[in-house]
Task: inverse folding
């Protein structure tokens, strides 16, 4: 019996050694299939105006040239909030779109319902995936924001409508006020908005330096710019309720009270800026077409896109804006068809064209070599090139469970401070506690 056991053990060791020396071929997955017949997939999105037109044009091009019988139907579902609500309702009803335009916080919520496809197999597929040089051509932060540590670091969505948080400068007003450029620090920015603010004899502000739109992503960018963090390393608590966040609220509170800044209603800041009545606002790079469209007939506006003020300009950091696209579980054929469109859409030719029609950022480094895009930036959209040059300073926001609710907490905190209902100290303390409770409930 001992001899038999010894022989068996030897065989097992030899087998294990052979296996280690010659690993088994990668197991085939649904990502390695062929499209076997006509297949239609539905994309729900939140784009409107010129950006919806740009997407429709891209979809029509893909449908006409993919050669695999794939038809994509792109359907607008309202704004991002309405889109998210409709997807959650569709999850409950068991009637999902095939893929969906979504922010990271949305994807985290959908993943809790086990309806999101892990894209790692599709990206890495030897048959239908992205070669290494193609993967490396896409900006790494765009991948990072689509990997979810709370879900085993899976790639649960893919870069789609990417943008970033920047500062818009009215060069005409800055020149008239004698403001020196570039503006690098928050101290520089404060001097600039004071210099460009005008008041009448009664002390009422007639021209503001800064239109301070309230949004959770804006706040997150300001925290980044002051050297702060948004989350603890273990993702169990927020970090924006520390000094960088408090300094952000204090600065905002000070400027509102001084009359050098105002909180706009809706998109008033875009209209005021385009009309030459506002020196600065901060927002998404995708706002550019709305500024151009808002310039009054016969009017002229000289303007630029720049980095937001920083505590340390040598370590500049801002928020990576823009949504992504996730595939929802359906059938292998539909999932693969959706992936084909996503893959095609991210190719250099498409992402360069997208940048000229939608004002979103191209997702690939190689897009800068596309002559059409270079000509477009030179002739029609110099601010697009200014924005593109800042991509390296953009960082993802948290993609943890509960982040969508935390965004509401941040917005309420900003509102409390700017309406004078709470001091910055009290507001951030209360908001931090609420956010941490949300995270605790999601563990």
Result:
């Amino acid at each position: 019996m001992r001899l038999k056991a010894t022989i068996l053990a030897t065989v097992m060791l030899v087998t294990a050694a052979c296996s280690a020396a010659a690993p088994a071929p990668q197991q085939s997955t649904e990502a390695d299939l062929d499209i076997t017949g006509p297949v239609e997939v539905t994309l729900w999105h939140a784009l409107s105006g010129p950006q919806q037109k740009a997407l429709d044009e891209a979809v029509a091009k893909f449908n006409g040239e993919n050669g695999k019988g794939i038809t994509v139907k792109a359907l607008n579902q309202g704004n991002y909030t309405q889109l998210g609500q409709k997807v959650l309702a569709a999850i409950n009803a068991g009637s999902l779109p095939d893929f969906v335009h979504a922010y990271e916080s949305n994807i985290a919520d959908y993943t809790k319902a086990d309806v999101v496809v892990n894209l790692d197999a599709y990206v890495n597929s030897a048959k239908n995936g992205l070669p290494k040089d193609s993967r490396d051509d896409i900006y790494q932060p765009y991948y990072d924001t689509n990997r979810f540590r709370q879900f085993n670091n899976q790639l649960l969505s893919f870069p789609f409508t990417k943008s970033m948080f920047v500062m818009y400068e009215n060069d005409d007003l800055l020149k008239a006020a004698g403001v020196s450029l570039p503006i690098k620090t928050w101290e520089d920015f404060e001097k600039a908005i004071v210099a460009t603010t005008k008041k009448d004899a009664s002390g009422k502000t007639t021209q503001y330096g800064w239109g301070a739109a309230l949004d959770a992503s804006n706040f997150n960018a300001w925290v980044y710019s002051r050297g702060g963090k948004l989350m603890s390393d273990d993702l169990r608590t927020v970090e924006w309720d520390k000094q960088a966040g408090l300094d952000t609220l204090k600065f905002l509170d000070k400027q509102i009270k001084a009359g050098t800044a105002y909180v706009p209603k809706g998109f008033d800041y875009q209209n005021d800026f385009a009309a030459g009545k506002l020196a600065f606002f901060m927002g998404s790079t995708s706002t550019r077409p709305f500024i151009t469209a808002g310039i009054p007939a016969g009017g002229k506006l000289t303007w630029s896109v720049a980095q937001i003020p920083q505590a340390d300009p040598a370590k500049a950091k801002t928020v990576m804006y823009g949504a992504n696209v996730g595939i929802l579980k359906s059938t292998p054929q539909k999932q693969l068809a959706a992936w084909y469109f996503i893959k095609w859409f991210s190719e250099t030719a498409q992402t360069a064209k997208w940048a000229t029609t939608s004002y979103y950022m191209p997702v690939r480094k190689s897009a800068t070599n596309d002559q059409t895009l270079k000509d477009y930036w030179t002739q029609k959209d110099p601010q697009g090139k200014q924005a593109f040059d800042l991509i390296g300073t953009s960082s993802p926001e948290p993609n943890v469970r509960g982040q969508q609710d935390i965004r509401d907490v941040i917005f309420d905190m900003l509102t409390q401070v700017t309406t004078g209902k709470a001091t910055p100290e009290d507001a951030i303390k209360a908001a931090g506690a609420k956010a941490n409770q949300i995270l605790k409930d999601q563990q």
